[in-house]
Automatic annotation (TrEMBL):
Belongs to the TCF/LEF family. InterPro entries: Catenin-bd_sf, CTNNB1-bd_N, HMG_box_dom, HMG_box_dom_sf, TCF/LEF. Coiled coil: none annotated. It comes from Oryzias latipes. Residues 19-43, 63-91, 285-294, 417-428 have a biased composition (Basic and acidic residues). Residues 482-507 have a biased composition (Low complexity). Keywords: Activator, DNA-binding, Nucleus, Transcription, Transcription regulation, Wnt signaling pathway. GO terms for biological process: epithelium development; Wnt signaling pathway. Residues 47-61, 569-581 have a biased composition (Polar residues). PANTHER family: TRANSCRIPTION FACTOR 7 FAMILY MEMBER, TRANSCRIPTION FACTOR 7-LIKE 2. This is Transcription factor 7 like 2. It is found in: Nucleus. The lineage of its organism: Eukaryota, Metazoa, Chordata, Craniata, Vertebrata. GO terms for cellular component: nucleus. The keyword Transport does not apply.
DNA sequence: GACCCTTTGAAGAGA
DNA sequence: TCTCTTCAAAGGGTC
């Protein structure tokens, strides 16, 4: 494992205390060894669903009665302990701090750094670039002293008014507040602004208002339900289905009532404003349009628990930082800390675009605060219950509807199939160069055009599609081509884990690439103003990467590629910065030399997406 | 403008 | 029964 010299005091920041943010793969390695814990988690989750199914109309009190004795630990606790154990095995005791759920290795920055917005640097403090921040979860909240750290994206010292600090009594970890009766983040159409009904208004028949108004938009219509929900539930439902459209819960209509899930290709979630404007048009034309729309009606799938959670929390995450990319936000919200290996193997493939830049404080805070898997049992149960009700209502409204009806309405992702095929090939023709696609025939390299033909253009590597030099052909010539980024090509598969270079004592066998460390990682953002603080980064096994590179273990270390040059533009030739690059993109560091630009120093204070391409 | 990314969960299809 | 695939939301990014 990482050649972390915890007390060496070398120029790589050996004094730095690292937190081992285990990636899924290694977590799963641990998990596989502790299958009982995994099963326990799975049982907990399934029991949540079961509870939701069985307790559909029960009050919270009765739920509490039927619920098994309170578990001594929440998901967060289990996650943390799981990661902690994995880290112990992995680092052989080098790591003194238990890991946090999330991501491979986070270097604790020197909070006194002058490069930090709130840093007040003392000269002596510089000798130790990082301070141990993460403590045992049972102790003081590790972020407590750091929470005042702020940057342009994250201002924990000034929690937004919507997010009150709610400290988990068990872990001392701030928890997001329970959904308010009215979430300020639920999208309100312009026409509905200022018309926010009482959150429980839908439970009470509203006089003078059509119970099932039919708007021209064809959705945002009443969502009949006989189910009882609490205030949080009602707020969630209201988010999806405006309260004034949610009928009294004793009024169950099952026929002919449009559902919010109904979407026509041309109109989406129209507001009441559009309703008003539609009144200006003639009735006849409206009738014709509606008929046309009915023909194009698209009944969407009901949202599952996680989708409901995401829908609610996304806005809060956005409020916490300036990150707006849904992909990144979704990672924060949903990345598994203790994933089911089978699920992750087939679906979690980290793209190079996933290397978002986070300040580590921001990342840790967001993970601890918003991660789905860090929710307590009760909190998750709430969303499972809501999702169950959604499905129930959906079934009542559209008895004949099948999820299959929507198949094919989105373009099928051929890339996944290509990826799978590529992986199969890789087993037979492993490519030594990072995660390059398989050399289908190493002895007779062919360009994509010759290999796949014009009719299979989608299988071509990206350079070929752009009429540039074929990377596969380059491979055939024996060089290690630069990865052309995504599109089912080179970097789609997670890069090699550092453990593949320096085998971990606990790693008994090579793991598939998808199980290797390639998480959401802390890296740096190129900035005009140099920020020579190498320890604001997080990433995998920096010392390991550095050592392997120094030992000449890096394959194809001399090959350059523009993508990596751009990706590493945040690096400098300073050891720390090059480390940063390695940490940020371990696989790249393993296979490619760094193009270092002294003028392009990292700026770790923003969340951006790196486009490798 | 279509599609991708990214997440979990539900559901359908096929082996 | 198990595995795989697709689709739900979301908005910036890519082509």
């Amino acid at each position: 494992m990482p050649q972390l010299n915890g007390g060496g005091g070398d120029d790589l920041g050996a004094n730095d205390e690292m937190i081992s943010f285990k990636d899924e793969g290694e977590q799963e390695e641990k998990i596989s060894e502790n299958s009982s814990a995994e099963r326990d988690l799975a049982d907990v989750k399934s029991s949540l669903v079961n509870e939701s199914e069985t307790n559909q109309n029960s009050s919270s009190d009765s739920e509490a009665e039927r619920r098994p004795p309170p578990r001594s630990e929440t998901f967060r606790d289990k996650t943390r302990e799981s990661l902690e154990e994995a880290a112990k095995r992995q680092d052989g005791g080098l790591f003194k701090s238990p890991p946090y759920p999330g991501y491979p290795f986070i270097m604790i920055p020197d909070l006194t750094s002058p490069y930090l917005p709130n840093g007040s640097l003392s000269p002596t403090a510089r000798t130790s670039n990082k301070v141990p921040v993460v403590q045992h979860p049972h102790h003081v909240h590790p972020l407590t002293p750091l929470i005042t750290y702020s940057n342009e994206h994250f201002t924990p010292g000034n929690p937004p008014p919507h997010l009150q600090t709610d400290v988990d009594p068990k872990t001392g970890i701030p928890r997001p507040p329970h959904p308010p009766d009215i979430s300020p983040y639920y999208p309100l159409s312009p026409g509905t602004v200022g018309q926010i009904p009482h959150p429980l208004g839908w439970l009470v028949p509203q006089q003078g208002q059509p119970v099932y108004p039919i708007t021209t938009g064809g959705f945002r219509h009443p969502y009949p339900t006989a189910l009882t929900v609490n205030a949080s539930m009602s707020s969630l439902l209201s988010s999806r289905f405006p309260p004034h459209m949610v009928p009294p819960h004793h009024s169950l209509h099952t026929t002919g009532i449009p559902h919010p899930a109904i979407v026509t290709p041309n109109v989406k979630q129209e507001s009441s404003h559009s309703d008003i404007s539609s009144l200006n048009s003639s009735k006849q034309s409206d009738a014709k349009k509606e008929e046309e729309k009915k023909k194009q009606v698209h009944i969407k799938k009901p949202l599952n628990a996680f989708m409901l959670y995401m829908k609610e929390m996304r806005a809060k995450v956005v409020a916490e930082c300036t990150l707006k990319e849904s992909a990144a936000i979704n990672q924060i919200l949903g990345r598994r800390v203790s994933p089911d290996p089978r699920r992750r193997l087939r679906r979690t493939v980290w793209k190079p675009e996933s290397w978002y830049m986070f300040s580590w404080v921001t990342l840790v805070h967001l993970l601890l605060t918003f991660q789905w898997h860090a929710l307590s049992r009760e909190e998750q149960a709430k969303y499972y219950e809501l999702a169950r009700k959604e499905r129930q209502l959906h079934m009542q409204l559209y008895p004949g509807w099948s999820a299959r009806d929507n198949y094919g309405k989105r373009k099928k992702r051929k890339r996944e199939k290509q990826q799978a095929e590529s992986n199969e090939h890789r087993e037979y023709f492993p490519n030594p160069c990072l995660s390059l696609p398989p050399i289908t025939d190493a002895n007779t390299p062919k360009k994509c055009r010759a290999l796949f033909g014009l009719d299979q253009l989608s299988l071509w590597c990206k350079p070929c599609r752009r009429k540039k030099k074929c990377i596969r052909y380059i491979q055939g010539e024996g060089s290690c081509a630069s990865p052309p980024s995504t599109d089912g090509s080179l970097l789609d598969s997670p890069p090699s884990s550092p453990s593949s270079v320096v085998p971990s004592p606990s790693s008994k066998e090579s793991k598939p690439q998808t199980e290797q460390m390639q998480p959401l990682s802390l890296t740096m953002k190129p900035a005009h103003q140099p920020l020579h603080h190498p320890h604001l980064l997080a990433g995998p096994s920096l010392g390991q990467l550095e050592n392997s590179a120094a030992a000449g273990k890096t394959p194809a270390a001399s090959s350059h590629n523009g993508a990596l040059e751009r990706a590493d533009v945040s690096s400098s030739r300073q050891p720390g910065s090059s480390v940063a690059s390695s940490m940020a993109r371990p696989s790249a560091a393993l296979c490619h030399s760094r193009s270092l630009h002294p003028s392009a120093a990292p700026q770790p204070l923003s969340l951006v997406t790196k486009s490798i391409e």
